[in-house]
Amino acid sequence: MMGTQGFNGQKNGQRLGITEPISLGGPTEYDVIKTKELEEFLAEAGLYESHEEAIRREEVLGRLDQIVKIWVKKVSRARGLNEQLVQEANAKIFTFGSYRLGVHGPGADIDTLCVGPRHADRDEDFFGELKRMLLEMPDVTELHPVPDAHVPVMRFKLNGVSIDLLYARLSLWVIPDDLDISQDSILQNADDKTVRSLNGCRVTDQILSLVPNIQNFRTTLRCMRFWAKRRGVYSNVAGFLGGINWALLVARICQLYPNALPNMLVSRFFRVYTQWRWPNPVMLCAIEEGSLGLQIWDPRKNPKDKYHLMPIITPAYPSMNSSYNVSSSTLRIMTEEFKRGHNVCEAMVLNNGSWLELFEPYRFFEAYKNYLQIDIVAVCEEDMMNWKGWVESRIRYLVLKIERDTFKLLLCHPHPGDFPDKSNPFHCSYFLGLQRKEGVSVNDAKKFDIRSTVDEFKGNVGSYTAWKPGMGISVTHIKRRDIPAFVFPGGVRPARPARASVEERRNAPDTSAASSLDAGTSVDVNVVDRPGPGPGPGPDDDDTRKRQREDYQELPAPKRLSTDGFNVGLPTEGTNVNDQAGTSGVKTENNEDIISGQLVSGETEKLATDSGQCESFQSSRQQLEELEELDMEFSTIKQVATSVNESLEELEATELVVPLPRAAHATAAAQRKPVIRFNFTSLAKATGNSS
């Protein structure tokens, strides 16, 4: 498992990365011991598949290859090609993602790509004939084609193994068995969907070719993926980072420390990215413009690229930012998690601690006092699957809109997954944690009115072209004590800790500014949802007020959601009945919706811009030398990126543009006026329960 000592940061005579390594030091005896402990920890966590499962996956891939070869010959014959061309017709299966990288776990799906000839059409043949063939096969189950996705995909299970199958249509009449898709010429005359489909395989292969030690890379990446899932920051669709993003970040650390073992690579991962000056891009190699005229990530030419907050650039042509979904809120959360990971690793060295603390799960439902609950319903399994996928892809826009309409005074933390209601298989919930921005006084931002923001979000969700009767959505502001029981393991709400005495609270250390883990910041938020199908208790009811005071009382069963149409409402819970009437949400002065993206804030900015003062780098001369090399890394990146735009060097607040429907633009212009304070009308007043 040990890295090659004396490795000089080159592979096949070429330097890896856009800079020299930070350190060429080899592993110590301590690194060897801790790496072995890490591998044992990952194995005990069940992250490695069995030998039998590995063999079954290989058999399934062989079976899939046979299926697409039969399919392409059938298509060729239907196209009227002569028998010789029919016999020569070929299609080829490639793998990518976690399976190709070698970091997949038990039960994980296999990302696959089918490469076909020019006469095999995507819509008519791949999503038509191949789909019909799969439906007729008894070993194929749960077939779910998604032809309208940004990257069209066919999802199904083959002999119990989950498959995500993409399609790339090349300009070749015959696909050779030794086809090399890493060559840029493969993209010649390819349509956009084919380019995006090929990109996954090309990027995966490039990553493996750009790391100095593949085994050390795989162990480290497996560790970081597990850590990200435990800490709730593994989800591209929610605005965090997905599998390819984490692979690129880990690969860059492997380039900077080519002789390090996974123990050191994990520690340096947190050290480097705690200090990283976003939005400086993470790149494994220089960006090539290519000769095919395809658009690449270049803020000098593409205005939208200027507003990316956490650029992580893919190494294969055409180079793209793989992390464009990251928002100001999710960047802040990930930065805090990097800092926490760095502190844990530092303490592990000092105290010879275990790996357990690093992977401690993030307690999302203990971290905040206020949440937004997004409930969705449907009437059948297929509708629910489609509806969930659409709503989930829109939630990050809600985060951006809340950032915009509260001028970043109200911070959002989206939970990366959904919570199914076991009492109703066609109902599930998503949650966003809400917190007032640190350093903002209560008087400046006591109440937030996001009713118009939520209405805009629901209007965006309602534009779903495949909407069917019965698909419903509800957005509700709830307090921590009102979180439904079905989100907790076993449907049992954890016992609330006993209240501390006055003396204990007085003597307790002040940790309110430590991180977003502080749950002591109360926020008044009003969200108006359209009323549900049946009457429910209003916020002024005695029973409701009594229930809000009884923190230990189990919540009643969730209210039945209507499936009569698109808009389904739940009564707002946890509303402050003392809220005063105020203005509705206010847009910015620009007719377009502007979201200000804070790149680094507070302590993070100080660390990033004055990293020589960081105490963690004062412990030894070797660490100081590594920091100087890290500063050289930033300087080199700036030579690449600073010329692109001044905002990359000065780290000034950027702005993200989120287009709105035309009607929303008109509303924004009509309501444009200076605002100092946000007040919100309670649900009770909004629904007419009080004047």
UniProtKB/TrEMBL annotation:
GO biological process terms, semicolon-separated: mRNA processing; RNA 3'-end processing
GO molecular function terms listed in the Swiss-Prot or TrEMBL record: ATP binding; metal ion binding; poly(A) RNA polymerase activity; RNA binding
Cofactor: Mg(2+); Mn(2+)
Gene3D superfamilies, alphabetized: 1.10.1410.10, Beta Polymerase, domain 2, Poly(A) polymerase predicted RNA binding domain
Recorded superkingdom: Eukaryota
Poly(A) polymerase RNA-binding domain span: 364-422
An example Gene Ontology CC term for this record: nucleus
InterPro entries to which the protein is assigned, alphabetical: NT_sf, NuclTrfase_I-like_C, PolA_pol_cen_dom, PolA_pol_NTPase, PolA_pol_RNA-bd_dom
Biased composition (Basic and acidic residues): 543-552
Subcellular location: Nucleus
Catalytic activity: RNA(n) + ATP = RNA(n)-3'-adenine ribonucleotide + diphosphate
Enzyme kind, highest EC tier: transferase
Biased composition (Polar residues): 1-13, 509-519
EC assignment: 2.7.7.19
Segments forming domain Poly(A) polymerase nucleotidyltransferase: 17-211
Region (Disordered): 1-22, 489-566
UniProt keyword terms in alphabetical order: ATP-binding, Magnesium, Metal-binding, mRNA processing, Nucleotide-binding, Nucleotidyltransferase, Nucleus, Transferase
Poly(A) polymerase central domain ranges (all copies): 216-360
Family of the protein in this entry: Belongs to the poly(A) polymerase family.
Protein name: polynucleotide adenylyltransferase
Natural source organism: Helianthus annuus (Common sunflower)
